[in-house]
Amino acid sequence: VQPRLSLVTLGVREVAASRRFYVDGLGWPTVLDLPEVVFVQVAPGVLLALFGADDLAADATGGLDAAGPAGRASLACNVDTPDQVDAAVRDWTAAGGTVVKAAQPAAFGGRHAYLADPDGFLWEVAHNPGLVVADDGTVSLRVL
Amino acid sequence: VQPRLSLVTLGVREVAASRRFYVDGLGWPTVLDLPEVVFVQVAPGVLLALFGADDLAADATGGLDAAGPAGRASLACNVDTPDQVDAAVRDWTAAGGTVVKAAQPAAFGGRHAYLADPDGFLWEVAHNPGLVVADDGTVSLRVL
């Protein structure tokens, strides 16, 4: 798996409140602005996602174990093909990391897995055909 | 304060163990590799920092309140001048965020402050003259 950060997802208590702070308060422009999740571009190819902590926990675990720290935050590494998700899971476990949610079709229309590093920090590895990074680093995101 | 992510710092139990996972295990190359902190570039202009949780907590709070979630992780927004650190603190509080550590000289030779969003997620705003982002997004980092 390449060293590529694609998203930092914050699991927030209330998306609307978080949006008021980052978008209305700080004036950060959105890439995609939905009631359940708000995306802001924060570097070339990198988005900040404001997502409900319960929703993040459910997404990260498949809803099986929605309690615990999984809802707190997640880093994401987007890969170019669905097969690269499975390859990343193999790389990750070979390096000593753990699988939190096995590679599977994702709600957003691609394929993903959730992994944890030795400290329990969450990484999502995802192939998301709706997320496109232009040559200049500008990210566009559409819901499939 | 601009929507700019410069670092994601993970507060880890043991830097050497975290380094074994990310650098030896996953093969991610380092930008700066020190016993107390390891930096990996993960996007144009963006570094992942592996830093001891206790060190991060102490840095974030000035050592006054090193307990609590401050050592868990931090996002950083690097700005171009020392004055922009103070301006960012004003923007942040005007938007409803809180100050965890007031703007002050930083151990790395620049100026920084630690801020929290409404959910308590930590952001460091920093002017770091030792961190330079080239036009192609490559980050170089030196200890001053």
Task: Give the topology.
2 copies of one chain form a homodimer.
Chain A: E1 7-12, H1 15-25, E2 30-33, E3 37-43, E4 46-52, H2 53-61, E5 73-78, H3 82-94, E6 98-105, E7 111-116, E8 122-127, E9 131-133, E10 139-141
Parallel strand pairs in A: 1-4, 5-8
Antiparallel strand pairs in A: 1-5, 2-3, 3-4, 6-7, 7-8, 9-10
Low-pLDDT runs of 5+ residues of chain A are: none
The fraction of residues in strands of chain A falls at 35-45%
The sequence of SSEs of chain A as H and E is EHEEEHEHEEEEE
What structural class do the secondary elements of chain A suggest? alpha+beta
Note the total helix count of chain A: 3
Termini distance of chain A?
25 Å
Which two protein chains have the largest interface (Cβ within 8 Å of the partner's Cβ), and how many residues from each? A-B, 41 and 41 residues
Mean pLDDT of chain A: 91
Q: Based on the structure, what is the oligomeric state of the protein chains?
A: homodimer
Shape field of chain A: globular
Q: Rounded to an integer, what's the Rg of chain A over CA atoms?
A: 15 Å
- Helical amount of chain A: 10-25%
Number of β-strand runs of chain A: 10
How does the major sheet of chain A shape up? 8 strands, mixed
Strand order of the largest sheet of chain A: 2-3-4-1-5-8-7-6
